[in-house]
Design brief:
The chain has helices at residues 172-179, 228-234, 255-269, 271-274, 294-305, 322-353, and strands spanning 6-12, 45-50, 64-66, 86-91, 94-98, 103-108, 114-118, 149-156, 162-165, 197-204, 207-213, 240-246, 278-283, 311-313. It has 354 residues and is α/β, with parallel strands linked by helices. The radius of gyration is 29 Å and the shape is elongated.
Length: 354
């Protein structure tokens, strides 16, 4: 199954209602004059940022969206009812591209943010609008404007503080289950995770961060192999990358080679991504044989990859070492958030001065 982080949809606004051709006809009033009302405006289509969903999977089943048409005008100068606007909820981080022109229409990054993607048709005018001193009985009306139809490409980049790197079955889903309330599927075969899972790790009542568990990378991901290319798009928005390495791979492969596979794909995809803050997490220590010294085993992996950054040794399944890791992540995220707020405040002050 394809990992859904993008979707193509068709949106159509409502067409404007036609103007009405009508004349007033009442007893004792033989020449009542024109009284045809205007039509109603067609409904527009909006995309709305929503934080209750984190995938575009729903758009696999419903791909066409249409707003209501405006109603035609009526006699007695009655205006037609306007069509209802259509609001489509999309996950935060969705980029909207018009397929035919490749124009980027916008990006939804805030809850409740609205982006108009199809303008409703303007209403037609009834014949009452064309009455003049020289034309007392006009028969002219205008039709409502047609609907606007657009083919859109939606691309989702997950908004998360922490992204999980690792080969399939490195233990990413188990880790997110152990530190948050998210419950992604866990199984002993590659690509168990097909859709992005966001978990909120709550350290205190008012301190938390969001962690993203997305499909693992395989060799060749930067060129589009497997599900990894979509993953690489997602992690470009995170503040920190946790590189999770299985120290006891089920296929008896070398953990250091697994690490290098991921690192090579990062460099191929983006130099900037390769330079992100990244912590090494050695996972599945509980699976080491009793006669194997865990410290020596982990040190051998570290020496082979020549890792210089932060290192954490955990068992996600047994929740060993995960608490300290989460505390340290929270401290880093707090610092980065404070720094971002200060930069934004300085930027606003400069704009106000200008």
């Amino acid at each position: 199954m394809k990992f859904v982080d993008e979707a193509k949809i068709r949106v159509e606004s409502g067409k404007g209602g036609d103007g009405c051709l009508s004349f007033r006809r009442e007893k004792y009033i033989p020449f009542g004059g024109p009284d045809g009302g205007d039509g109603g405006n067609g409904g527009s289509v909006y995309l709305v940022g929503d934080n209750n969903s984190n995938t575009l999977a729903d758009f696999r089943f419903t791909r066409t969206f249409k707003a209501e048409n405006g109603q035609p005008g009526r006699g007695k100068n009655c205006t037609g009812k306007g069509g209802e606007d259509l609001y489509i909820k999309v996950p935060l981080g969705t980029i909207v591209v018009e397929i035919n022109t490749q124009e980027i229409l916008g990006e939804l990054i805030k809850v409740g943010q609205q982006l108009k993607v199809a303008q409703g048709g303007y209403h037609g005018q009834g014949n009452i609008n064309f009455k003049s001193s020289t034309n007392r009985a006009p028969r002219k009306i205008t039709k409502g404007k047609p609907a606007e139809v657009r083919q859109l490409h939606l691309e989702l980049k997950v908004l998360a503080d922490v992204g999980l790197l690792g080969l399939p079955n490195a233990g990413k889903s188990t880790f997110i289950r152990s530190v948050s309330s998210a419950k992604p599927k866990v199984a002993d075969y590659p690509f168990t995770t097909l859709y992005p899972n966001l978990g909120v790790v709550r350290i205190e009542a008012d301190r938390s961060f969001v962690i993203a568990d997305i499909p693992g990378i395989i060799e060749g991901a930067a060129e589009g192999a497997g599900l990894g290319i979509q993953f690489l798009k997602h992690i470009s928005r995170t503040r920190l990358l946790l590189h999770i390495v299985d120290v006891v791979p089920y296929d008896e492969s070398d953990p250091s080679e697994s690490f290098r596979t991921i690192e090579n794909e990062l460099k191929k995809y983006s130099d900037d991504l390769a330079d992100y803050d990244r912590w090494l997490v050695l996972n599945k220590l509980d699976l080491l044989a009793p006669d194997v010294d865990s410290e020596q085993h982990c040190q051998a992996v570290i020496d082979n990859i020549d890792w210089k950054g932060p290192i954490y040794k955990i068992s996600a399944l047994q929740k060993e070492g995960t608490q300290q890791l989460c505390y340290d992540i929270m401290e880093l995220v707090d610092k980065q958030r404070t720094h971002s707020e200060e930069e934004q405040s300085d930027s606003e002050m400069i704009d106000n001065k200008e």
